[in-house]
Amino acid sequence: MYRRWRQFVILPMLIVLFFMPVQAFAAKKLIPMGEAIGIQLQLSHVFVAHDVLLASNQWMKGGAVIEKINEIPVKTLADAKQAVATQGQQKWTMKSEGKEVTLELQEQEATHVISFLKDETDGVGTLTYIDPETKNYGALGHQIVDSTLQEAPVFRAGSIFLASIQQIRKSIPGQPGYKISSIEKHQERLGSIDKNTVYGIFGRWEDGYPQSLPKAIEIMHEKDIKTGKAEIYTAIEGSKVETFSIEIIKIENERLEFIISDEKLIEKTGGILQGMSGSPIIQNGRFVGAVTHMFVEEPKKGAAITVAEMLRKSS
User: Fold this and answer.
1) In the chain, is it the N or the C terminus that has fewer CB atoms within a 10 Å radius of its CB?
2) What's the predicted TM-score (pTM) here?
3) Is 264 helix (H, G, I), strand (E, B) or coil?
């Protein structure tokens, strides 16, 4: 779910004509989180995960949408599996690169191709905030982009779950690191995913969190943010959220740039990691924003969006 943005890499991606007045955020309080979350989207169609060469020497292209198998409409992976149970030669109808394509597959080949289909996309990110008044949440600070489709997928439903960090691959200049995580599926889901926007994912919090929530703090509007010391909340081991020091070095409207200054975090991660997107930023006890990007050649340097902007664009 990551893609490049000039010299940035989105951390494992809408314009809303709706602007809330500054006064509306004056006393707004949110709960800063920082937990690693597993993200799952149930897609609107069944897709081919990557290119598959058939016995006929024809290619089934990655990203193709499976529409029908043996004239049976396919909406889910379960539909596809049921349809290929038919014996003998099979007719697959799909939409690939904007064109309708029909392919003939033998029974054994069709069964093999099923393993290359998917009807969901998933990934790992960081939970940014929970609104104690509305029970809505925000996470990531950027859009989920499916790796096969190379775009934001159309989805039927989505869920977030608590994740546990099992291992870290450190960032080095030119090579972003990442978190290796497992989703705690044995627990209840934390919330639904209702929107997937360039400002993050948003949905309804469902109280599946296994412990008490932190205290809500006041958000900081863009005009009050200062260069200098701040903190980020994030998880780099298990599901424990820790606090790490940063320096905000640039403020430009709703965007920030910062440097990781915490030696413990640098030693453990090399700087910012993929999967750290959404980590809350706090300055002087107030909620500033969320980590969104890292500079590929300078992994200690990152970018962020203000939480005020996330709130404006969540409606």
Assistant:
1) C
2) 0.83
3) helix
Among residues 278, 287, 292, 291, the alpha carbon closest in space to that of 126 is found at: 278
DSSP-based three-state secondary structure for 20: coil
Coil, helix or strand at residue 101: strand
CB 34, CB 290: distance < 8 Å: no
- pLDDT tens-digit profile of 12-36? 433 232 334 444 455 799 999 999 9
**CA–CA distance, 298 with 302 (Å, rounded to integer):** 8
Q: Is the separation of the CB atoms in 125 and 142 below 8 Å?
A: no
pLDDT in tens, 46-86: 999 888 888 888 888 888 999 999 888 999 999 998 888 77
- Residue that the structure tokens 């403020």 belong to: 251
Q: Report the CATH architecture of 45-118.
A: Roll (2.30)
Kindly report, as residue ranges, where domains of CATH 2.40.10.120 are found in the chain.
4-42+120-313
Fold of the domain built from segment(s) 4-42+120-313: Thrombin, subunit H (2.40.10)
